[in-house]
Amino acid sequence: MSHLFRSHRYLIIFVLFIGYSLSAQNFKVQKDIGKQCMQKMRLVSDKIILAKNNFEMYIPSEIIIDPLQSTIITNVQKPNKQEKTVTNFIIEEIKCNMNEDITSGTITYMVKSNNPKSVYPQNGFILKATREGLSFLSSTDPADDTPVMPIMKFEIMK
């Protein structure tokens, strides 16, 4: 047994060192993201505006963003129908450029869909704060084709 340890001790030390380094890096990445970008949020919208021509469609929607669980859940009512479509997204990365009181800046959520048949943005979503308020949009569509959801109600969830 001691012979096994001696011959593999450098390998064991290397693996332990790499494992410790990787766990320290993950903690550092998480720590660098501002508190405002790691809060669980509930966003409510009643319409989507197409940026290209400012066409508005009445589409009630609720979005739950939970960075600590790495999920975004969208609950969107289909146009002119009572049924709702719920889609789960898995957050793979967060880019935080938002001020602390969530009144200016952006949070970009890089996602993958947990629903293989759904149509979703390939790179993710952006939560954008301006003087006019919050909006939620796709990060992949060209700027003039982007459907924008103006947020009429926003809450930090506990």
Describe the structure.
The protein is of the alpha+beta class. The protein is built from 1 helix and 9 strands; from the N terminus they run αβββββββββ. The protein has one helix at residues 2-32, and strands spanning 41-50, 55-66, 71-77, 84-98, 105-113, 124-130, 133-138, 147-150, 153-156. It has an 8-stranded antiparallel β-barrel. It is globular and about 40 Å long. The protein starts with a helix and ends with a strand. Residues 4-31 have low confidence and may be disordered.
Helix content: 10-25%
Task: Output the strand order for the largest sheet.
Answer: 1-2-3-4-5-6-7-8
SSE run: HEEEEEEEEE
Span between N and C termini? Answer: 51 Å
What's the shape?
A: globular
Q: What structural class results from the helix and strand content?
A: alpha+beta
Strand content: over 45%
- Which residues sit in consecutive blocks of at least 5 with pLDDT less than 50? 4-31
- Output mean pLDDT: 77
Task: Round the Cα radius of gyration to an integer and report it.
Answer: 21 Å
